[in-house]
Every structure is written in C-alpha cells, then in structure tokens.
Design brief:
Layout lengths: L8 E4 L3 H13 L3 E7 L6 H5 L2 E6 L10 H11 L3 E3 L9 H9 L3 E2 L4 H8 L1 H10 L7 E2 L6 H11 L3 E9 L2 E6 L5 H16 L4 E5 L4 E10 L5 E13 L2 E7 L6 H17 L4 E10 L9 E7 L6 H8 L3 H10 L14 E8 L1 E2 L5 E2 L2 E2 L2 E3 L29 E5 L6 E2 L6 E9 L2 H13 L2 E3 L5 H9 L18 H4 L1 H4 L8 H18 L20 E7 L2 E10 L3 E6 L2 E12 L2 E8 L6 E8 L3 E5 L4 E7 L13 E3 L4 E6 L6 E2 L4 E7 L2 E6 L4 E6 L6 E2 L4 E5 L5
Parallel strand pairs: 1-2, 1-4, 2-3, 4-5
Antiparallel strand pairs: 6-9, 7-8, 7-9, 10-11, 10-13, 11-12, 12-15, 13-14, 15-22, 16-17, 18-21, 19-23, 20-22, 24-25, 24-31, 25-26, 26-27, 27-28, 28-29, 29-30, 30-31, 32-39, 33-35, 33-38, 34-37, 35-36, 37-39
Helix pairs in contact: 4-5, 12-13
C-alpha cells in the first residue's frame, strides 16, 4: 500500500490564470503556496494571492519560467514540499520531473517515463496501437527521407496531414491536398518543427475531411486505479488551437462514450499513468458519432486549460484531486463519478481576430465582469432540479477563471489570455445563452479582444444547433470556413442590417408618439408625392434611403434598393435595457433578438452574434448633426437649391436658411440660434459634400 505523503506547501511553477487557480484550491485545502515571478510579473495577481513569492529572473520565459534550476532553488529556499507545474512551460518536461525527484520534491503530475512515452507522437501512436487503442491510418516510421514520406502519403491517400512528432499547439503541422504540393509542405513543416521543438522528424496521417476533436479526462493514482471523468468537445478551433470547449460532447451516445472512455483508460494504463491527463481523439464528424469513427491523436500529460467544464458537470475539483493523488490517496471508483448538465468555456484573449488573431498588447483599463446574469437566464421552471452545481462556488451557473485585474499589463512575453468564461446549465442551448450573456455584459477595455468573435462563434447556426442529429456540423474547420462572417468584415453595409436599423428607428418613433401615425411627423423626410417615412443611412460612404412602406405594432415593411424587407418586432424589457426582437418575416430561420441603441449619428445593433454600427443621416436635427451653435453644415452630400439669407442678415432660431436636395428629396436647414450671418459657404446650384460649411453665424457676444 502506498504511504500517504504530507504536502504543507506547494510551489507553483507557472503564472497567470492557472497559478491563481491552483492557489484557490490549495487555500481551500489549508496548504500554503509559493509563487514565482519574472520582471514582467512583479505585480501580477498570482504573486499577490500567494502566501510567498520568489523572483526568478528577466521577463522572457527562457530566462525565468523555463529555467529548471531557478524553480528548484525557489522551492528549496521557501521550504516547499511539492511543485505544481500548471500547464505550458515545464509542465510536460520529463527533465523537470526528475529534477524535482532529485531535490526530494513531490511533483504533482505523472512520471517522467509516462511523459516520455507520450511526448513523441510517432512513438505514442505505436504504443497505442499495441495497446489496442484505435489510431489514425498513417506512417509513423523512423525513415524520414522525403521520397519515402511522399510515397507513404500517396499510399495513405490525399488529403494528408504532415505533423511534427514533437509538435504541439498547432505548430509543425501542414495539410496537403494533392501530390504536387507535398514537397513544399514537407520542407516548411520540417523547418518549423526544427525551430520550435529542436526535432524536424514528422509523421504522415490521413486527413479526416470533417473532423471533430473530442478528448477524455483521465486520472490515475498510485494504487493502480485509472478512471475517466467523461469527455469534452474541443472542435471549435483556429489554426489548430482551441477557442471554445464544452462537456459533454454534443451528440454523444452511451455506446460511443463507452468505446471512447475505454480506449482512453487503456491508453493511460499502457504507460502506468498517475495524475490528471487528457487523451485526445480525432473523430469523424461527417455524420453521427460512431464506435468505429474515432482515432487516438495524442495524450496531454498535464491538466488542460479547459478542465473547468469537466469540473462543472462532475462537481469535482480536478486540482484538488491532483494534490490528493500526489499525496498517495486513492481515486473514487468509476461508478461514483457522475455527470449532470452542460458546461461551455470560452477563452477571452487580448487579440485582434480581424488581423489574423495577432496579440493586442497594452493596459487592461477596464475589466468588469458581468454581475447579474439571472435576468438573462431561462425561467426557473425550465430547470430539472431548480439548482446548479454548487461544489465549485458557481454563481448563477457561471464562473470566471483569470490571472489579471483591472489596470494590469498584457505583456508581449506571454500568452495573451485574459480570462476563461465558463457557463453551466442543464441544457446545451441555455448554456450557450448564459455564456453569451456573460461575454456581452462584461466590460473589457483598453485593448482589442476576441469577445465579439466568441459571441458569433457561440451563435453560429452550425454551433448553436437545436437538433441532436445535426451536432456533427460543428467541426474543427467551422471557423476557417466562416472566417469573414465570424470576424464581421463588411457586414454593416449589408442591406438587411440597414433595414433592421430603419425598423428600429420606426418602432422607436412609434413608441414615442403612440397616439398618431409615424407618417404624420413633420420633422422627418418624405417624398413630395407620398406619405412615406424615409430614413437615410450610409452605405459604402454614400447615402442610401430606407422607405417605410407600412407598419403595425408587430411588423414594419422597409423598401431598400427595390427590395422589400418585412421585419417583425417584439419589445422585451429588462430593466433599463430595451431589447428589440426582430427577424425577417419572409425567412423564419432568420429570427433573433436584437438590442438597438440609437443616437443622432448611428444605430447600434447587437444580437450577441453581430455588433453593428449603422451610420445614419439625421439632417432634420438641426442642433446636432447639421448645426452647431454657430454653423450649419451639410448633413450629407447634396445640391443647394435655395439660400434664404445673405451675409449680414439677422436671423431667429428655427428660421429656414438653406434648402438642400439629396436623393430627389428636399430638406430645409434652420438657424440654430438667434444671430447675424457672418458667412455663406455655398451657392445655389452647388454640389456639396457631407460636412461642408453652409452658413456661419457671428460669435455670440455673450
């Protein structure tokens, strides 16, 4: 029987969010913590939270967090009993494990031998094949001659995937569609592998055309027990890096779950695994999940970034179990580990999705988390048990894991992740709604983030799926296929969004004047011969008119570029926020809730998927868009058809001064105040641009 070890103080060989996460559990267990930090992290949150801290060097990780000797010295200096590696940095380095053992420190993780067995993809796949774990068809041999590799690719059948045997994080990986592209892709992959991992060897695998990425959380203890804690779906990825993760996997059946978890346990037992680990599978996503439709991809011999979704559905604290296993305690039996509900995690990064997801470095000027999501959740009557899993201090079914606070710097030296938002509900779509609300109502300012991108991913029709038989549509290439839409490039100028903006203005006008028709308003444009309300917007830097043909309390018909849009409306009140629920009546599949915020210059529309700013022209508002206290400017491009004043004339507030024509419509611009005309900036018949000075009044003597 394994003797239980004492762990009174843990040094955390990491930084940021995972360091804070470990500190939280250690404190709950009554264990002291030691943080290590570089120059860039002197004031970091994990340093402030830990009981002790040790400076380990300059900002670059290769001079601090990756220097084994400095970590060991810090542990000895502070009298730590154990080291938790977190993830990244030294977490999967067998030399670090051996250094801890030599220093008589408990390493909270697997053995160096298990890491080495799973560390190289080719050797791991061979080991898994021998253990009876299904592996992807491919070549994993030692002969690395380009001629042989190309021949093997032809035998496997294109498309194929070239992968660095020591790779990870999406690096050292190339998809090859045809034989003619193989040589260049191989050379590129080898260069990147040598640069990133110091090992240029590759393997060749069959590329699964519609892949899903499903992984199984496994745990082993020193008593020979290995259990699983169900699966996670991590299919939403960009450049082979995970973006959104969830548990359980959508569309999972009992039969496929048993086959997959049995394979994962067999993989862990093959290397005598101890601690937390994740066995990752590539899955055929061309249809429903099958017991013969998944293959071993790799095993991560550490805690995963996405471990919170497993904690949410099981109620287990995985960091706690890492520590307990390291102390020599036995794991619970498989039958004691239960699963309930659904959890989804989104990684909030300081990055610019439009600019190829490049990091956004700077100061986190505002970091205010959503404080009250209860009003955005379904009614309590829709819940099975009218409760949420409370074992991890979940508030309203959601939690945030972060390593930063307001005012912190997002440094160029490390991964730019700001936080992980995790939602928990009993049903998948309710979970999507809660997570989207969490993102929408959290304020993160000072640098660019992927928040809007994540909302669109959550609400993409191939992710937010209602029919279980269609869950296969959320594959690893979803983001790549829909990149333009998900990064919101050029959408503001689409006519249907302009029509939505026009309907938002119309319903607002109707609600402000309930006793009369919106067409009776005297302060809005209309065609000379027709009683139609017209709104003017900008499209491709030119004005475009949206004509309100008719409306009722629930329907607005907009004509735009000779096309007619029928837009339904419901008004839902959430405190001070008015949410306009609009959809295109002629397309029942295109109905969603939109929040509209209207200013004199812009109609802001947001549905949690898109966040659009539709520029409008409001020339009738003479004291705002067309006039200041001293000037009248052209509210849009047009022609001057009348000037009612000349320089030196005295005018009264509201007196008509200029008549413009634009898009066959006339608009009269009035004096913003009493005064004397100092300057006329245009002539009758002149074509003027947006913002051109038309009339300037003498400065007010007061």
């Amino acid at each position: 029987m394994t003797k239980t070890k004492q762990i009174k103080k843990i040094l955390i060989a990491n930084r940021g969010e995972i360091a804070c996460r470990v500190i939280k559990t250690a404190r709950k267990m009554g264990i002291s913590t030691v943080a290590v930090y570089s120059d860039a992290d002197r004031k970091a949150l994990h340093v402030r939270l830990a009981d002790e801290s040790v400076h380990i060097g300059p900002s670059p990780a290769v001079e601090s967090y990756l220097v084994i000797e400095k970590i060991i010295a810090a542990a000895k200096e502070t009298g730590a009993d154990a080291v938790h590696p977190g993830y990244g940095f030294l977490s999967e380095n067998p030399d670090f494990v051996r250094a801890c053992e030599k220093a008589k420190l408990i390493f909270i993780g697997p053995s160096a031998e298990a890491m080495e067995a799973m560390g190289l993809k080719d050797a791991a796949k061979k080991l898994m094949d021998e253990a009876g774990v299904p592996i992807t068809p491919g070549y994993h041999g030692k002969d690395q001659s380009p001629k042989l590799l190309k021949a093997k690719a032809g035998m496997i059948g294109y498309p194929v995937l070239i992968k660095a045997v020591a790779g990870g994080g999406g690096k050292g990986m190339r998809k090859v569609e045809v034989d003619a592209d193989f040589d260049a892709a191989l050379a590129s992959c080898k260069r990147e592998a040598a640069s990133s991992f110091g090992n240029e060897d590759v393997l060749i695998e069959k590329y699964i055309q519609s892949p899903r990425h499903i992984e199984v959380q496994v745990f082993g203890d020193t008593h020979g027990n290995v259990v699983h804690m169900f699966e996670r779906d991590c299919s939403l990825q960009r450049r082979h890096q995970k973006v959104i993760e969830e548990a359980p996997a959508p569309g999972m059946t009992d039969a496929v779950r048993k086959a997959m978890t049995d394979a994962a346990i067999a993989a862990a037992k093959a290397v005598d695994y101890v601690g937390a680990g994740t066995v990752e599978f590539i899955v055929d996503g061309s249809g429903k999940l099958r017991t013969d439709g998944f293959w071993f991809m790799e095993m991560n011999t550490r805690l995963q970034v996405e471990h919170p979704v497993t904690e949410m559905i099981t109620g287990l604290d995985l960091v706690e179990w890492q520590i307990r296993v390291a102390r020599g305690e036995a794991l619970p039996k498989q039958g004691e580990i239960k699963m309930e509900g659904h959890a989804i995690e989104a990684r909030i990064y300081a990055e610019d999705p439009v600019n190829d997801f490049l990091p956004s470095i700077g100061t986190l000027k505002t970091f205010a988390l959503a404080s009250d999501l209860d009003r955005f959740r379904p009614s309590k009557s829709s819940y099975k048990n009218n409760k949420v899993n409370s074992s991890n201090n979940i508030r309203y079914g959601w939690r945030t894991d972060t390593g930063v606070t307001e005012g912190d710097e997002i440094s160029v030296y490390y991964d730019p992740m700001i936080a992980k938002f995790i939602a928990y509900e009993y049903k998948r779509f309710e979970c999507i709604r809660t997570l989207a609300a969490q993102i929408i109502h959290s304020k993160i300012e000072g640098l660019k983030t992927n928040s809007a991108f994540l909302r669109r991913c959550l609400y993409h029709p191939n992710f937010a799926i209602f029919k279980p038989e269609e869950f296969y549509k959320a594959t690893t290439n979803l983001i790549e296929r829909n990149f333009s839409t998900l990064t919101q490039q050029g959408l503001e100028n689409e006519n249907k969004f302009i029509a939505l903006a026009a309907s938002a203005l119309t319903f607002k006008l109707r609600k402000e004047n309930p006793s009369q028709s919106v067409f009776s308003q005297t302060d809005n444009w209309r065609l000379n011969s027709e009683a139609n309300l017209i709104w003017i917007f900008e499209k491709n830097e030119l004005p475009i008119q949206a004509v309100v043909k008719s409306y009722s309390d629930i329907l607005c018909i907009i004509e735009l570029d000779d096309n007619e849009y029928k837009i339904a409306d419901r008004d839902l009140e959430y405190g001070a926020n008015s949410i306009m629920s609009m959809g295109f009546a002629q397309d029942t599949n295109d109905f969603s809730q939109w929040r509209s915020e209207i200013t004199n210059e812009t109609v802001h529309l947001s549905d949690g998927y898109f966040n659009l700013a539709i520029k409008r022209y409001a020339p009738w508002l003479s004291n705002s868009s067309s006039a200041s206290s001293d000037t009248i400017s052209a509210p849009m491009p047009g022609k001057i058809i009348a000037l009612n004043v000349a320089a030196g004339d005295s005018v009264s507030e509201g007196e008509p001064l200029v008549v413009m024509e634009a898009m066959k419509m006339e608009q009269t611009l009035t004096a913003p105040r009493d005064g004397v005309v100092a300057e006329i900036g245009a002539e009758v018949g002149e074509l003027v641009t947006d913002g051109a000075l038309l009339v300037r009044l003498e400065e007010d003597a007061e």
